[in-house]
Design brief:
The protein folds into two domains: about 45-300, Type I PLP-dependent aspartate aminotransferase-like (Major domain) (Aspartate Aminotransferase, domain 2, 3-Layer(aba) Sandwich), CATH 3.40.640; about 300-430, Alpha-Beta Complex (Aspartate Aminotransferase, domain 1), CATH 3.90.1150.10. It contains 14 helices and 15 strands. It has helices at about 5-15, 40-50, 55-70, 80-90, 115-125, 145-150, 170-180, 230-240, 290-300, 300-320, 355-365, 380-385, 395-405, 415-430, and strands spanning about 75-80, 105-110, 130, 155-160, 180-185, 195, 200, 205-210, 225, 325-330, 335, 340-345, 370, 390, 405-410. Strand 6 and strand 7 (about 200) form a beta hairpin.
């Protein structure tokens, strides 16, 4: 790209998206969002000028760099975190896995407190979600409840790292090893979080990430599946690429691997073009090179983004501790260093005000809030409308608690010192009415 065009993009960025002064009470503070500058716009323009647009050189580079960042050998990019979850579960149903494949009726332990797209791939593959309760402070799976939930039908555990806070990975991995279960990490809200110094996404058989506009880094839309095992990686890529037996680099006619070994099941002519041999029930879930170019610049900023999220969370935690009689404040899992997605406030049962009253007050002061994802997914309309086969292990007491009494404010990197101080000031003013 010539220097003149690059300068013009920088000027246009400043004109459209340059510094906007924060005006307390007037400027809206979002709960999450994207944070970018002219560098991302230059990178995307570079990809546009290539004239390629579908998955290409930028996607190749991103997959290599993101795999290195997470600390696993294989990264398969895809259209969203939801697509990543679908691909991960689909891969585990592949007949190429033999006796370890997930089959209809097999149980997968997960959470009702979470986002629907962790659960939905299980439903689509006629697997049985088994819901366990969460710990109220970490909002992650209760290890004791996980232990109780395992049955002869259990074949996998699929858990999110909620709001950036990791679940107890040592305990969960120990259960998986003992019972020979697959482990899938949903890291869509947790990019940059670490456990015992290692990145989330490096512990499971498969892990998933989201690059949605409101997540830790963005491609606008986008996601990734991470794998340690080359067979699992190849199966995942097959499901992503129409179900192909072989992997072909986009735009090329020469195959890039030895295939999945399904030709003995083929009734096609011997001379059939390898590009049109399909061994899985796949889709086209690839990203564009424009997205990947954006992602490469964002990936280079993750360390700075994570630092700001740490700072914001620590400020909220310290400033709001004096109001603990009203709330259960969030707590990091031992051995974890979360890149917090949001700061969750959970009203105690004897709180003198309602969640609705507090949220409406914050909204009047231009502070945007979010619920704890789907709350309890079992209570969502689609669970009432469809004949979904699921099991609840124990009682979902804490899950129902966060559904009724939790919400969160933003920790994301565009919330600077003046914005976080304003959020705490508004909260403090509200609590003043209750003699705090």
């Amino acid at each position: 790209m010539n220097k003149e065009l690059k300068k013009q993009i920088q000027k246009e960025y400043q004109k459209r998206f340059g510094i906007r002064h924060f005006i307390p009470g007037k400027t809206s503070i979002q709960a999450s969002g994207k944070d970018f500058d002219w560098q991302e716009m230059v990178a995307m323009t570079e990809a546009v000028l290539d004239g390629w647009w579908t998955e290409g050189r930028f996607a190749d580079e991103f997959e290599k760099k993101f795999a290195k960042f997470v600390g696993v050998p294989y990264c398969i990019t895809t259209t969203s975190g939801s697509s990543a979850n679908l691909l991960a579960i689909s891969a585990l149903t592949s007949y190429h896995l033999g006796d370890r494949r997930l089959k209809p009726g097999d149980e997968v332990i997960t959470l009702a407190a979470g986002f629907p797209t962790t659960v939905n791939p299980l439903i689509l593959h006629r697997l049985v979600p088994v819901f366990v309760d969460i710990d109220i402070e970490t909002c992650n799976a209760s290890i004791e409840e996980l232990k109780k939930a395992i049955s002869k039908k259990t074949k996998a555990i699929f858990l999110p790292h909620h709001l950036g806070n990791t679940f107890n990975i040592d305990a969960v991995k120990s259960l998986c090893k003992k019972h020979k279960l697959w482990l899938v990490e949903d890291c869509c809200d947790a990019l940059g979080s670490t456990y015992k110094g290692k990145q989330v996404g490096s512990f499971g058989d498969l892990s998933t990430f989201s690059f949605y506009a409101g997540h830790h880094m963005t491609m606008g839309e986008g996601g990734a599946v991470m794998a340690h095992d080359p067979l699992l990686a190849s199966i995942t890529r097959s499901f992503r690429d129409w179900g192909r037996e072989y992997w072909f680099k986009t735009g090329e006619d020469s195959r890039r691997d030895k295939g999945l070994g399904a030709l003995d099941k083929s009734k096609l002519p011997a001379d059939y073009d390898h590009k049109f041999i399909f061994s899985e029930i796949g889709f086209n879930l690839k990203i564009t090179d424009i997205q990947a170019a954006l992602g490469l610049v964002q990936l280079g900023k993750v360390a700075a983004f994570t630092k700001r999220r740490h700072e914001n969370f620590a400020y909220y935690q310290k400033s709001l501790k004096k109001f603990e009689r009203f709330f259960v404040l969030p707590k990091a899992t031992p051995k974890a260093d979360p890149s917090w997605f949001g700061f969750l406030l959970t009203l105690k049962d004897d709180c003198p005000f309602t969640r609705k009253e507090l949220i409406e007050y914050l909204h009047r002061h231009n502070i945007v809030t979010r619920m704890f994802l789907a709350g309890n997914v079992i209570n969502q309309p689609y669970f009432q409308s469809y004949a979904i086969d699921y099991r609840v292990s124990g009682k979902l007491l804490h899950t129902d608690h966060v559904m009724r009494g939790s919400f969160w404010v933003g920790c994301y990197q565009a919330i600077d010192k003046s914005r976080r101080e304003y959020i705490v000031k508004v909260l403090s003013n509200f609590f003043a009415a209750y003699n705090m």
